[in-house]
Amino acid sequence: MRTPKAELPAREDRQVLDRVSTTRVVGGVALAYAASMIVQNAMFVGGVAQLLGLGDGTSAPTYGDPLGEVFAYHAANRGAVAVAVGLEALNLPLLLLFVTGLQGLVQRRGGAGADWSRLALAAGATLSSIYALVIATHIAVVLAAEGLTEPSPAFELLWQLHAATWALSLPALGATFIGAALAGHASGLTPPWQRLLGTAGGGLLILAGAGNLAIADGSPLVFVGVLGLAAWLVWLLGSGVRLIRRRG
């Protein structure tokens, strides 16, 4: 017969194991999300798409390129775009799983950084909604190009709507990034350099998002947002590896 004193250490051991298991799951989700986003963006690189037999070797146009080039790309690279937008069906649940799991980890570690984790959760939910519009409009762009020999007014409108929704996703991503980075650091889950990366990268995303009209019109300001997005991927990879390696 086990005494209460014997059961207490056993219960504590189970709690530690559960905490470690959950931490590793959240880390795995972070790595899977980052990997999926990297593959998704790689599909818009002409060489990668051509290598896989999904495109004609041209890279995706920017929002500042002539409409004729935008039309030609989507008419010739439907396969690459189909793979990229299809991956968003994986990205959306991974994003929500990560921010929800992060909030749970923060609460289990005493609640330090709980406010920041709630910000990450709320911003992540908003971001997933905006991303759904970004992908839906991109699907509509591809469908609008089918059967046409030149861009129509409807095609142009859909492309502009796609550009506008992507530009508006930047501040939501920035808020998610900052909230997650500060929550992870405050709870001791991530090191100081990741907090600095999060605040800097998230700040760049919010700054770029403030110029959403210019970005949608083809401004080079878009590269500020791209730099913030790259920082987000680096942070996810670093956080994922660290969480998987944690032992408590």
TrEMBL record:
Transmembrane intervals: 21-44, 79-99, 119-143, 163-184, 196-215, 221-244
Alphabetically ordered keywords of this record: Membrane, Transmembrane, Transmembrane helix
Protein name: DUF4386 family protein
